[in-house]
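2024-03-11 09:14:02 DEBUG pipeline.ingest accepted 1 chain
2024-03-11 09:14:02 DEBUG pipeline.ingest length=251
2024-03-11 09:14:03 DEBUG pipeline.predict start
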Amino acid sequence: MELQNNLVIFLSELRRSARLLAISLVALTLLLFFLSSGLLATFQGHLQEKLYFFSVAGPFLAHVKVAFFGALYILMPLLMYVLWKALGRPFGVTGSRLFWFVAATCLLFYAGTIFCYLVTLPFGVRFLLSYQSEEMKAVISIGRFVNFVTIFILAFGLIFELPVFMIFSAQVGLIRRATFERNRRYAVLIIAILAALLTPTPDVVNMALMGLPLYLLYEAGILVIRLLRIEERPRGLPAGKTGSGEKSGGS
């Protein structure tokens, strides 16, 4: 019942801001559509190859996708504020705590996307294109290229937010710090699977470019929980009580 009530509160709070988010996203997408040629040229700088289209609407749809991605990227602080406000309401996360969750999430998101754009993406593109030869030249669809770049960058940004959600889970009593420490081996396995699925190339070096930072972020989350001395009480237990063995007023 508690989980169901929390879910209802979360969805109710999220629904209140859905219209504002939708209007902002559509308006900014329309605005960025007129700048999408420059954005697309910036992405293509990593490719250093010509792009082709295989349908009449191909170039138009590619520009729409780039504009939509740019709008999502710019509106990420607003999106994170709405998400954390809805997620924090059932658990009483408000005020300064809400601000720091939003700020840390945005900082890590942008750090992840910049790392991907400057390091992982160029390396992956160069590796994939290294297999072309005089007899086998790349003919790259503009639509598929835009999908590849935008989804890859967004995925990197989202997974970099891991420490914030770890801290939130510990603070509201969903998952104890000891649980994160005890399950490191499973975390490594999950990180390796994610790296294999999300990186553009199957080689170990490129997978490590995602997997290693992600594991360091996992350890950073544990360290921050320890340093902040976040109370890790069982789920559903009010603040100020630490377990069933304690009684108010002494023995």
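2024-03-11 09:14:41 DEBUG pipeline.report DSSP finds ten helices and two strands in the chain.
2024-03-11 09:14:41 DEBUG pipeline.predict end
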